[in-house]
């Protein structure tokens, strides 16, 4: 069982109820009214246009138009796309970013602009360092878009790469505007209620075309800023005490029958019970400052030639400040005092008056759970985790503060689109494009402090409520140690930057020849070539001095003073939206961004660009895509469609960071020229790879791990046939049938991440790393739909679909791929098996329902959809990013003065592990719990319903006041592990409001 089936949220229930009410409403229907004759404006016009495109398409598509975007409470395209049937989004900090389709993860959906790929970028450091193919739409403001067509069934003339579907976004063109000279200026502000901050929100555009209507210019600019804050409670912490584990009384020696006296439990009763390794609170603030523009030039001297050049650029500054206050329950129970949570045998032990002490579990409350895989387990729902009485303060947790300075995302493209009608029968088109995306954090810098006390009490609440947490004898929440040894002291600091560059240029040529021979109306063919490059890596400065920890006591012994100024407490309203219980500890502290930057600057030094390089984090790939297709457009009595085939070739080259055995090569000191290593001529000898380079210490040329780059090259060929049929059943009813094969290329890190941790034993040699032999995923798809356009701006539709996927990635597997490396035991070259990703099959079956209709002759209307997608992966794990249920319901009102819309969006639970997991991760491995081998617990995002509203009031035809609000219910987003009894994270991000005055001319 992948997910537990739950009752749908109110939005989806209403959508289903509305389907039942359809016959009564349809009595006023006027079938067979052509959509093109509807002469209304605003929301009603946008619905008419969208349904008209959907109705005429051969394939099964969903459509959203510029009016849709303008009249919805949306700030980017992803916000708008989530309103469509079968489309779901990943939302970060209350703004939709990544789009997924029909029960798949975002990597399986291809988003193209004007028919070509667009390199996007991520603003958050963890996403910047990943290697997902998913497109972030946070840089794409809604007002530069004309139309988005979501292809749920494929056809040969669509760019390949969308395994689950393709979304083609068209930007606005100047000659499409009615007036010769027109424009709009919007001035306003945004307000975020959680941080309580205002910010400017402005955009504008102008369009001009000559008197003959043969040449036009459209220019758009935008400058949109907003403040962001997220309050969270989680299980995140340092070392092995993060997440969840089981009680083991053979290593947690403080758990005894005596310590449990009076509780009704014995030590044996607690053995194997799941417990949270930590209790944590997190607090993140950010400013998103998005600026950019678009310029479009269109030349159409006659009806035969149409040439458009479009340039777009968007950049978002997103410096962010993250704070964490966490406990160390797991370490405490194991009697470990290592201040970063390590629990290995060599880690420092607790030490109180010369004796090792173990935390005890007092007042335990144990509940039963059934995992998502059907296994019974027990969970420690609440307890006091306490060291024995009279124990001196020991390690009980950490506090950290990281400021991501220079966090930025950029995306840009330039395309030239030309269409020429050679004669009445032949039309040719060409499309040239170049695109570049950059995600960068110049310096991710922060400090970590260890906290000392004698215990922590906790009590887990419901999945959507913050837990009770209380520390004992740990001092107040501020830096510095007290006389008794309680409080905080600095134990670690870090500083590094991340930069990922994604770029592509492509050329495409298409031709359509009119046949008019029997059922064959026209023949389309074309070729396309794209050259794609992806580079990514970290760089970091060298610290002047290290932090030394006593190996016996675990206490810091080096002269590293803990700053006692420049800090600030969590805001007094932290966690108010998390509904925590009375008395829970929602306090914390961190250093201000200025204090963090000053500390890091004073404790790091200038070396060289080469030394700051961290080769092991690098991805360096080139992917060339070639394609050719032929497609026939068909038409008969009451039916139409297309049939075709597309051939695609994918050539992947990767330079893979490969470790060199210790001592084989010597590293050169910063500032010295690189030298060639005889054993490994390609060794990168001038990179530091985070090797210590402290003041006053002799340079060690053999310290750390060195790397060289191993080049790989693979070529994959795929044939992608497709067939789409559309049948007019009469009475405004249409039936569609689609069958196709689609392709989705693997994430970059599965093909080109670096090798690491080589080792050999009696069973052979193994190394972690990528699998360049992984073929692209392919899916055989079947789509059947029925739709009834029973009245103007009205539709009821049902779609059923099936996809059979071959090549779905399975991480953490020992495959057949090998690499030749040096055995560190005897310094001889041997063949190493790569612990990497393999491939398997998966299936998706689903149904979608859609219903839209005005309320009779009133100014009110209604939109709704609901979809269900059942996924099944060969190994029994859930598909990452797949929600079984999604749904939307919307109500709108529009008259000559007022246009308003209220939209509820529901997304069911899904596995929210990264869309680009490490090839060496155990995300699809097994864990042995209480002697039972069961799938490793993924992290689930629980179901969530959000509500958004927009209203536009027209003072005059040209002057408009627009108000919109998102996340009106301040939805709490919950995550859990094996079941809801194991809550993993809960966060809120508050509501966002926008008020703009728009003037059209």
What does this entry look like structurally?
By secondary structure, the chain is mainly beta. Helix content is 7%, strand content 53%. The protein is built from 10 helices and 49 strands. It has a 30-stranded mixed sheet that branches. Strands 1-6-7-4-5 form a 5-stranded mixed sheet. The protein has a 4-stranded antiparallel sheet with strand order 16-17-20-21. The radius of gyration is 30 Å and the shape is globular. The two termini are 58 Å apart. Mean pLDDT is 88; it is low at 1-40.
Can you tag this structure with a few keywords?
mainly beta, 10 helices, 53% strand, 1001 residues, five-stranded mixed beta sheet
Please give the structural blueprint.
Blueprint: H1 10-20, H2 22-25, H3 42-56, E1 61-65, H4 66-71, H5 77-81, E2 87-92, E3 95-101, E4 109-113, E5 116-117, H6 125-129, E6 145-151, E7 165-171, E8 181-192, E9 197-209, E10 215-234, E11 244-246, H7 267-270, E12 274-276, E13 280-299, E14 305-317, E15 320-327, H8 329-334, E16 360-370, E17 376-386, E18 394-421, E19 426-453, E20 455-459, E21 468-472, E22 480-481, E23 487-517, E24 520-539, E25 542-543, E26 567-569, E27 589-591, H9 593-603, E28 604-605, E29 613-636, E30 639-660, E31 706-730, E32 733-744, H10 748-752, E33 756-761, E34 764-768, E35 777-788, E36 795-823, E37 828-854, E38 860-873, E39 885-894, E40 898-907, E41 910-911, E42 926-929, E43 932-935, E44 940-941, E45 944-954, E46 959-966, E47 973-976, E48 983-988, E49 992-1000
Parallel strand pairs: 4-7, 34-37
Antiparallel strand pairs: 1-6, 2-3, 4-5, 6-7, 8-9, 8-49, 9-10, 10-13, 10-48, 11-12, 13-14, 13-15, 14-18, 15-18, 16-17, 17-20, 18-19, 19-23, 20-21, 22-23, 23-24, 24-29, 25-28, 26-27, 29-30, 30-31, 31-32, 32-35, 33-34, 35-36, 36-37, 37-38, 38-39, 39-40, 40-45, 41-44, 42-43, 44-47, 45-46, 46-49, ...
